[in-house]
Amino acid sequence: MFRRKLTALDYHNPAGFNCKDETEFRNFIVWLEDQKIRHYKIEDRGNLRNIHSSDWPKFFEKYLRDVNCPFKIQDRQEAIDWLLGLAVRLEYGDNAEKYKDLVLDNAKADNATKNAEPLINLDVNNPDFKAGVMALANLLQIQRHDDYLVMLKAIRILVQERLTQDAVAKANQTKEGLPVALDKHILGFDTGDAVLNEAAQILRLLHIEELRELQTKINEAIVAVQAIIADPKTDHRLGKVGR
After folding, report:
1. What are the φ/ψ torsions at residue 113 (nearest 5 degrees)?
2. Strand partners, 241
3. Does residue 108 register a pLDDT over 70?
4. At what angle do helices 76-94 and 22-32 cross, to 10 degrees?
């Protein structure tokens, strides 16, 4: 998920960068500050460069605050992505003349396709966008994904299938059953109380209905399995069909 930005920043290994490797991650942060962001003066980068220190997480947390990163040290992927975005902006600022003509050409090429897909106009690197998608995913209990657009599409599908007015109305519909004459169904035992006998008959009928639904699902599963395994193949070597 970081490859494009790492490539733009001339990182030595954009395809193989592993942010979960602690040593590689710390070295990457040092490289990013030394070569691209340069928020601290050189003499003030000692703590950040001391990657083997047990206090390095505290130094990194302070660094995030100093550069006004909206993410915490626990949100490693989000923080890395934000820092990369900052580095790209600074890199462009330092070389504005170099990239100006290229940006104009790319802008002309993109104008024709900007309205083709609604999501294409979203700034997926915007921290507010990422925070909003993450909040919705947590609220709807959707599994986290590295690509925020994938999570957004999953949210859209869930909302369309479960939370639209039609879906909610359908879910709230009550099933209307046929009237049943309890006196035609033998309970098989007597509790000594007419009300309890009637309640027991109702519970038995409901249990039978649940068993019927279960049997239907079992039958559907059997049919699905048979559709897969009950398809004999011709073995030309044996001159037989099936086994």
Report:
1. -115, 0
2. 234
3. no
4. 30
